[in-house]
Amino acid sequence: VQLQAFGGGLVQAGDSLRLSCATSGFIFRNYRMGWFRQAPGKEREFVAYISVSGSTMYRTSVKGRFTISRDNAKNTVYLQMNSLKPEDTAVYSCARYRGNEPNDWGQGTQVTVSS
Question: DSSP labels for 41-98?
C-alpha cells in the first residue's frame, strides 16, 4: 500500500490549492479515503473523507471552503482548498480507511498560508 500526497505550497490568505494523493497497491475504489492535517505543536486532525459511494464528511472549520473528491480510474483522491486561512497551515496527509478508522498513511505535503 502506497499513498503519496502532493500539491502543497506557500500561498496567501484567500488563495486556493488543490492537493492530490496518488495511491497504489490496493483496490482504490473499495476504500474510504480521507485527508488529515497536523499543524506545528498540535495533534493531527481530521479534515475530510469520501466514502466508496462518494458521500463526504468535513470538519466544521473547512465546510464550504474545501472539497474532497476521488477519481477511481486514477486511484487518486483530491482536496480542493479555497479561501485558505492562516489557520489552515499544516502538513496535509491522506489516509486509507479500514472500516471507520484511518489505517494507512502516506507522506504529507506542507501547506503554508500567509496572512
Answer: TS--EEEEEE-TTS-EEE-GGGTTTEEEEEETTTTEEEEEE-S--GGG-EEEEEEEEE
